[in-house]
Amino acid sequence: MFDYKLLAALAAVVEQGGFERAAQLLGLSQSAVSQRIKLLEARVGQPVLVRAMPPAPTEVGRRLLNHVQQVRLLERDLQGQVPALDDGGLPERLRIALNADSLATWWARAVGDFCAEHRLLLDLVVEDQDVGLKRMRAGDVAACVCAAERPVAGARSLPLGAMRYRALASPAFIKRHFPQGVQAENLARIPAIVFGPDDLLQHRYLAQLGVEGGFAHHLCPSSEGFVRLTEAGFGWGLVPELQVQRELASGALVEIIPDLPLDVPLYWHHWRNGGELLTALTEHLHRGVAGWLVKP
Fold first, then answer.
1. For residue 123, which phi and psi values (nearest 5 degrees)?
2. How far apart are alpha carbons 77 and 81 in whole angstroms?
3. Which intervals hold domain HTH lysR-type (predicted)?
4. Using CA atoms, how far apart are residues 172 and 169, in angstroms rounded to an integer?
5. pLDDT of residue 91
């Protein structure tokens, strides 16, 4: 039989990114949390954590985290069916990974009513859309929004639609760098703006123009900051159309090559045995994103 106090300690260390914050969450001393992890490792006969900064689960640790994530959701279902088991504690908290651009545009409007109705608290983990699935694989989250179609073992994926990006720059930037008009072969030498090391949108955009290899770029790991840097003329970049409708209408930002968008399909991944709450959220998302995402 599992000792769920030990599993809770493992989940807290991974989710909180360290033993100290896990101890604060659980109301224990740091040494007590460490002892629980050691006892869990003694029970399973192998390490469940890589002692790094932040701590990361081993392969068996990931399996245990996947299990405890699903148990939490199933326990919520049982409390709803057997009211006497409801301890009247805090609302359910669901840990979800999603890309920063979704968080900055459609996510809040798509799920706000659902969270209010179901007394659901969200613990959001921001990851690039190309790598968000690693959080599911690590057992760190119960669901994620990402660009990968194939689910991890024990999970399902649902196509949500595509986020439309446009390559934008300020009028002054275009006048300065492209006085004779935009030429694709010159884009690699003109400063771009990239969200982070895992952001490959600009690479894809250049590839569809026949431009391969590296290119000059700033790094800006903030969706809002990305737009502000683009407006200020730091560089050109791929920006969600949803996020800059006002700037496009006013002319503060313009498309460097008109009518050449880049659509990125997004998928909702969730545990197959995630309980009624996760199923209801999945159905709500399936109905609710139609007004925000485009059909790929």
1. -115, 95
2. 6
3. 2-58
4. 8
5. 60
| The pair of three-digit structure tokens given for residue 215, joined into one six-digit string | 């290119």
Tokens in use for 31? 């040494």
Which residue ranges form the domains of the chain, and what is each CATH number? 163-264 (3.40.190.10)
Per-residue tokens: 159: 């196509």
Does the predicted model carry a pTM greater than 0.85?
Answer: no
Decide: 129 and 145 in contact? Cβ < 8 Å.
yes
The C-alpha atoms of residue 271 and residue 215 are separated, in whole angstroms, by 39
Q: Which of 288, 240, 271, 285 is nearest to 77 (CA)?
A: 271
Q: pLDDT tens-digit profile of 99-116?
A: 999 999 999 999 999 999
- Tens digit of pLDDT for each residue in 32-77? 999 999 999 999 899 999 888 888 888 888 888 878 877 777 776 6
Contacts of 256 (CB under 8 A, 6+ apart): 167, 168, 169, 174, 178, 182, 187, 236
Tokens representing residue 174 in the block? 């275009």
